[in-house]
Amino acid sequence: MSDKVKFTVKDLDLFYGNFQALKKINMSIEQGKITAFIGPSGCGKSTFLKTLNRMNDLIEGVKIEGEVTLDGVDIYKDFDAIMLRSRVGMVFQQPNPFPMSIYDNVAYGPRIHGVKKKSALDEIVEKSLRQAAIWDEVKDKLKKSALAVSGGQQQRVCIARTLAIEPEVILMDEPTSALDPISTIKIEDLATELKKQYTIIIVTHNMQQAGRISDKTAFFLTGEVIEYGDTEQIFNKPVNKKTEDYITGRFG
Ligand SMILES: Nc1ncnc2c1ncn2[C@@H]1O[C@H](COP(=O)(O)OP(=O)(O)OP(=O)(O)O)[C@@H](O)[C@H]1O
């Protein structure tokens, strides 16, 4: 697997009004890997994740300074936000299928991007549901409401919906925190499978999860990245005392 850099973040500051939520973040995120963001509640993990597909643009009073590039192109200066989000998809904490059929959920993005032919949509829907490891469970109920399946299945439908627009990066914001252990393992296995094709960045409170699936880990504290490196190093030989305290549960 190449070590090609997907995102480069330089001196990134983010303010919600007067409150500085991110402080001088510098990070290179590698392609084809799973990068985990860990740290205590409120330390800025989700905020940082959302700067990578400009979801914070939608919040009033947000000010962002510094630079984020995707494949070397500045996402704040040289990208249309909609175009960016089609390359950098997102899966949220709570499964959030649209109140429509499973088929229409997955076909939603391609339709917006102009795919109209039924045969083409059928193909995308099947491929995406297969990639999201849920095809066999839903293939006989594609016309049923996406809200009528279990939470774990809903989350995989949401992942399929994200995959249907063929992004290059998938941002996952605590994607398993609302799920039972079996569904959690399914999503973890899925993430491991998907990294062959996609770059995945995941926010998680579950340290075992970060240890199990990620290649790189960044530890955040009060808006700063305290330590960033190979997951094995961060978990087994953290350099910073604060990282060690957090990893070993002595934090706070
Ligand atoms: N829309 C907003 N307006 C103002 N402050 C916000 C907003 N969103 C987040 N914050 C603040 O920014 C800080 C970072 O929040 P963020 O949600 O990024 O943290 P987090 O590490 O993801 O937390 P958690 O693990 O609890 O989800 C917190 O102090 C939070 O209260």
Features:
single chain, about 250 residues, alpha/beta, Rossmann fold, six-stranded mixed β-sheet, 10 helices, globular, binds adenosine-5'-triphosphate, ABC_transporter-like_ATP-bd, phosphate transmembrane transporter activity
SSE sequence, one letter per element:
EEEHEEHEHHHHEHEHEEHH
Overall average residue pLDDT: 94
The low-confidence parts are none
Count of discrete domains? 1
Instruction: Briefly note the structural class of the backbone.
Output: alpha/beta
Number of strands: 10
Q: What is the straight-line distance between the termini?
A: 38 Å
Which small molecules are bound?
Answer: adenosine-5'-triphosphate
Oligomeric form: single chain
* CATH-derived architecture: 3-Layer(aba) Sandwich
- For this structure, the CATH topology is Rossmann fold
Sheet with the most strands, sense and barrel status: 6 strands, mixed
Spatial shape: globular
Could you characterize what this model shows?
The protein has a single domain, classed as Rossmann fold (3-Layer(aba) Sandwich), CATH 3.40.50. Helices cover 36% and strands 27% of the residues. The protein is built from ten helices and ten strands. The strands form two sheets. It has a six-stranded mixed beta sheet, sandwiched between helices. Strands 2-1-4-5 form a four-stranded antiparallel beta sheet, covered by helices on one side. The radius of gyration is 18 Å and the shape is globular. The termini are far apart. It binds adenosine-5'-triphosphate. The site of adenosine-5'-triphosphate (ATP) has 12 residues, from strand 2 and helix 1. Adenosine-5'-triphosphate binds at residues 16, 19, 21, 39, 41-47, 59.
